[in-house]
Design brief:
This protein has 16 helices and three strands. The chain is mainly alpha-helical and about 400 residues long. Strands 2-1-3 form a three-stranded antiparallel β-sheet, with helices on one face. Helix 8 (about 150-205) packs antiparallel against helix 9 (about 210-245), helix 8 packs parallel to helix 16 and helix 10 packs across helix 11. It is flat, with a radius of gyration of 30 Å. Mean pLDDT is about 85; it is low at about 1-10.
């Protein structure tokens, strides 16, 4: 008996499209999620429907489900629930309206779980890659309080603001990263192909070469003879660094601490991290989630291991009766302005509002810092490229200038 029950529970359900006639002979169509065509046929017959056609719905492979898709879904679901559209119908509209087949399949599966009586937050918890603990906790709080539409609106606003910060940081880092990659490719081509060609010409001169030219030729000879070792070593270092970062909390902590101390970019990343931290805590506290429970999700949402560990320490102190402001001060990772705002919020009973205002301030500072970075990095990168590539070119042309003087 137990074996049969386990087998039944392990049957993989699918969505079937069916067509049939009702008792009045009218042709009707629909979709049903079940373990097989026989189950669909049996259930429809119980409803008095004579089935004429059943086929399994097939989805295209689709693309990757991005955080942007989840944000858009949250906003759409919030809007439809505010307008009075039933939950299941809202999922149908979102699933059919998406151009990404993977997104449609995800929301169809969630809809099927909700249709069978599963709570929406529990249905989301089955997909932790797309719905984190913070998302599920807020949805659960909205279900319990009967304000799911309001909580989804808060959640959509939160995700939109977080995405905006991430987008600005990425845009600030993309330009210098792209320039450095192009510079690395250009230097590699020069070392592998251009310098050896010049070397053959210089050897025919039969004269001594300037010291800069000799140094560049020596570097090129080493690169030509050992290019596979150079690229192999770089790939190995990159691979083992990534593996250590994924598996070792100490490496994560060191790497994130190094990022926060990095010149130029470090301060921007610190402000963006604090803004995410404050926005997350404000959103969860405003939703009625107890402070200690809210701190469970805040550290991970900050995106930095230094702040994750600091949040765990804050959570432990708050759980033992310490005020949030004192616990934040003890962590030594928050500036005075944030501590003052948190203190005022605690004393006035409007902690969520004050944290939200502090997050707004830091988000504006991130905007200003990114704008300043764009104007600062362009001349700096031009200087670096000029020194690097211009230095190589001058070193290779020095013997030609010398030969021209002799002639």
């Amino acid at each position: 008996m137990a074996t049969k029950a386990m087998t039944a529970n392990n049957v993989r359900e699918a969505t079937f499209q069916w067509e049939g006639r009702d008792r009045m002979g009218k042709t009707i169509r629909g979709e049903m999620r079940a373990g097989g065509e026989a189950v669909v046929n049996s259930m429809l017959r119980r409803q008095g429907i004579f089935v004429t056609k059943i086929r399994k719905r097939r989805y295209a492979k689709g693309g990757k489900i991005r955080d942007k898709d989840i944000t858009l879904f949250t906003r759409q679901l919030s809007t439809m629930l505010h307008s009075g559209v039933p939950l299941l119908q809202s999922f149908d509209i979102v699933a059919k309206g998406s151009s990404n087949a993977a997104v449609s399949r995800l929301f169809t599966d969630i809809r099927a779980d909700v249709e069978t009586g599963t709570a929406l937050s529990q249905a989301f918890r089955k997909y932790p890659l797309h719905f984190d603990a913070l998302y599920c906790n807020l949805v659960g709080a909205g279900e319990q309080a009967g304000i799911l539409d309001d909580l989804l609106d808060r959640l959509a606003t939160y995700k939109e603001k977080i995405q905006a910060i991430k987008g600005k940081i990425k845009s600030a880092l993309f330009y210098p990263a792209a320039i450095l990659v192009v510079a690395a490719v250009v230097v590699t081509v020069i070392m592998l192909f251009v310098v050896p060609a010049f070397k053959e010409v210089f050897e025919s001169f039969g004269a001594g070469l300037p010291a800069p030219t000799m140094m560049v030729i020596a570097m090129s000879d080493f690169f030509v003879e050992n290019w596979y070792l150079v690229f192999g070593a770089l790939a190995a270092v990159g691979y083992f660094t990534m593996q250590a970062w994924k598996r070792s909390p100490k490496v994560k902590m060191s790497f994130d601490r190094l990022i926060l101390r990095a010149p130029i970019f470090g301060e921007v990343i610190r402000k963006a991290t604090i803004a995410r931290w404050l926005r997350t805590l404000a959103t969860m506290f405003a939703a009625g989630v107890p402070l200690v429970e809210a701190l469970d999700s805040v550290g991970g949402a900050s995106g930095n291991h230094v702040y994750l560990m600091a949040t765990r320490k804050i959570q432990q102190e708050v759980a033992t009766g310490t005020s949030l402001t004192v616990a934040m001060q003890n962590s030594q990772v928050f500036p005075n302005m944030v501590l003052q705002m948190a203190s005022i919020g605690e004393e006035s009973g409007s902690l969520d509002s004050m944290l939200g205002k502090a997050a707004d301030i830091y988000e504006r500072e991130v905007d200003d810092a990114v704008a300043s970075l764009s104007s600062l990095l362009e001349p700096l990168i031009m200087v670096i490229l000029g020194v690097l590539i211009g230095g190589l070119v001058i070193a290779m042309y020095l013997p030609i200038f010398k030969l021209g003087q002799v002639v």
